[in-house]
Amino acid sequence: MAKKTFKGRPLLPGKLEGEVLASKQPFNTSGSYLENLFANRKDSAPCTDPNNKDFYGKELSGAIICTTVTVGSSLGGASLMGVGSLGVGPKAMLFSQHIDSVSFAGLLMDDVWNDRRVITIDLLIQSPSRKTEPSRSAEQRSNGRTSTNSKPRSESGKRVTIAQVNVPVAARRRAPAHATLHA
């Protein structure tokens, strides 16, 4: 199978490999972690948002979540910090659109205050196809460019590797990333 390449903007870059949990529906941060946030569940994080048919009932703990945007209340950022402190937060969050400021604030505060990084990339768009050799994994590097809000055409269960490329500090705010997902 061919690889799919996505370009995006790394907000909290890092290195990671795992399976993608993808949805074309918005991700409700508070509604998806109800059992964890209000019942203090620490052993797993099944998605409790019945409005997201792609994620409902699936394990979110340690997931690489690929979605359009996050929705919900102003509790979203605190929800992401809370599930991180319980040890059942996501490893990465990938967005096809702009990340909302509430969720990003929670992810950023968790990174700075609690030293828990959730790799975060937004503005993902699919790059023009290139012929590549079949692969069982994919790569994501911090050195592409993007400016649109196209939806990623990723499917849940696909392998992705996120590998940070050194980007000069002055360029990090503008330095986008690109991902190659095994399709």
Characterization of this structure:
The chain is of the alpha/beta class and 183 residues long. Helix content is 19%, strand content 27%. The protein contains 4 helices and 10 strands, in the order βββααββαβαββββ. The strands form 2 sheets. Strands 8-10-1-7-6-4-2-9 form an 8-stranded mixed sheet. Strands 3-5 form a two-stranded parallel sheet. Helix 3 runs parallel beside helix 4. The longest helix is centred in the middle third of the chain and has 14 residues, at 101-114. The model is unreliable at 131-154 and 164-172 (pLDDT under 50).
Average pLDDT for all residues: 77
> How helical, in percent, are the residues?
10-25%
| Structural shape | globular
Distance between the termini: 6 Å
Total number of beta strands: 10
- Strand-and-helix sequence, N→C? EEEHHEEHEHEEEE
Strand residue content: 25-35%
Spatial extent as radius of gyration: 15 Å
Major β-sheet strand ordering: 8-10-1-7-6-4-2-9
Q: Main sheet?
A: 8 strands, mixed
Instruction: Report the structural category.
Output: alpha/beta
If helices are DSSP runs of H or I spanning 4 or more residues, what is the number of helices? 4
- Poorly predicted runs: 131-154, 164-172
Characteristics:
single chain; 183 residues; 19% helix; globular
